[in-house]
TrEMBL record:
Its EC number is 2.7.13.3. Keywords: ATP-binding, Coiled coil, Kinase, Membrane, Nucleotide-binding, Phosphoprotein, Transferase, Transmembrane, Transmembrane helix, Two-component regulatory system. The keyword Iron does not apply. The chain crosses the membrane at residues 40-58. It catalyses: ATP + protein L-histidine = ADP + protein N-phospho-L-histidine. The keyword Zinc-finger does not apply. GO terms for molecular function: ATP binding; phosphorelay sensor kinase activity; protein dimerization activity. Residues 187-269 form the Histidine kinase/HSP90-like ATPase domain. It comes from Paenibacillus selenitireducens. One of its GO terms (cellular component) is membrane. Residues 54-87 form a coiled coil. This is histidine kinase. Residues 80-143 form the Signal transduction histidine kinase subgroup 3 dimerisation and phosphoacceptor domain. It is an enzyme of class 2 (transferase).
Amino acid sequence: MSYKWIKRLILWIPTITIGLWEYARHTVLLPYISMNLGNVLAAVIIFIITITILRHLFARLEDVQEKLNEERSLKAALQEREKLAQELHDGISQSLFMLSVKLDQLEMAKDEEDRIEKVDKLREKVRYVYDDVRQAISNLRTDPEPSDMPWSQSLLMMMEEFKHDSGIELHLDWQLSEDPLTAKEKIELFACLREALVNVQKHAQASDVWITGVSTADGFHCVVKDNGRGFTSDPFQVKGRFGLQMMKDRAASMGWVLDLTREEKYTIVNIRKGRKDVI
């Protein structure tokens, strides 16, 4: 029996019982039972109903409430695990990947001067990873503090770092105003775009990537397009591609539409808020 039905029965049973008793009392029993005795019997009937039926229903209600509380606790724990997974992926995992890129570049150093330069950059990246880990731990303990840097500037810096670290030519056409975006939308859109670029660097073997962002009448439309090798099957079903699934889950949680398509020689990620036909 559901939680709602138990509550309804607890409310209905006494009401219906008293209604039936009063009807029988005034239509059949009135010549035999006085008003005072009828009132006493009404209280006795309610007491008996409470002891026999309502007591059982209240016990069932407590059991259902306990199960609901357990489900809420489990859901909260799963949400915390999901938050931890996102923190690890967005910060530590991607930073470690960039460290591996720096190590590859160090191995390809042309001479001693080039090697020293790359070692310095690697050391700088290690410090960045260290700060990133500390920030991730802090974010898990408390709410993350807002950055003093404007969101659009943070976005441009992230794209510049991608271009510098990957060597992939980046073509940017960004006309999306940050003013209509909520703080939550800025965080999630930033994470989705960063994940799209990381995937290009990891898997696409592309030479160029194009990023566009425009405001629409009821939202926005962002596109990340690359000329890499693409994919032959559904990339969201590939085992071990946690970043893509997280990106899809982020978009879904915000009510956005995210799709990944292959058109001619280009792989295209679309992130859209609002109706497709509204410009």
